Amino acid sequence: MAKKFSQRAEDLRRALAQEAARIMAEHGIEDFLQAKRKAADRLGVNDVAVLPKNVEIEAALRAHQRLFGRDSHVHSLKEQRRIALDAMRLLEEFQPRLVGSVLTGTATDHSDINLHLFADRPETVAIHLMEIGVPHEFYERRVKMDAERSLTFPALRFGAGGRMVDATVFPIDGIRQSPYSPVDGRPMRRADAREVSELVAGTG
């Protein structure tokens, strides 16, 4: 009986991951917890023990993107990376790094382009954007730095090439420690302009 229940729970977990992935792909939800909760509501699941991990949802999202609209996904992702590269060149003095779903390849057509910037004073980024005529919003973002510590950093949002760029500004020495990824809890992958250029060219 225990084995049968375990298999049923595993099947439900897989179904929840697939439904959460579909919600993220089709509705532009980027928050894994929100997608997970919506999937549980739609499937009538109340047992938190069977909720999938973020890495399982990400794997399901990759599978969904391969099965549905693969060509459009590849085209959209390449466009997002090209726009990210353009934004990184505009912000070159702040040592920009691309992070998140546009880098990992799981971005949907609704995803923001996420950058990490590094500056002694965050207002210098805002001043630079004003000088080059880029309207932007300034806000604060909570970032998980390790298993036990979260910190608040300034961030800016601005439009570029019909997409939204979300840039978090870290101190100069923040380039040495990458925050934790919300997907797997490991240090977040960061890519510089050279690496993004290779991705755009299809060599990475």
Could you walk me through the main structural features you see in this protein, from its secondary elements to its overall organization?
This protein has helices at residues 2-27, 32-43, 54-67, 70-90, 101-104, 123-131, 193-201, and strands spanning 97-99, 113-118, 137-144, 150-160, 163-170. With 204 residues, the chain is α+β, with helices and mostly antiparallel strands. A hairpin with a 5-residue loop joins strand 3 (137-144) and strand 4. The chain is globular. It starts with a helix and ends with a helix. The mean pLDDT is 91.
Query: Separation of termini?
Result: 48 Å
Query: How many helix segments?
Result: 7
C-alpha Rg, in Å?
Answer: 19 Å
The backbone outline, from C-alpha atoms, is globular
Could you write a compact summary of the structure shown?
By secondary structure, the protein is an alpha+beta fold.
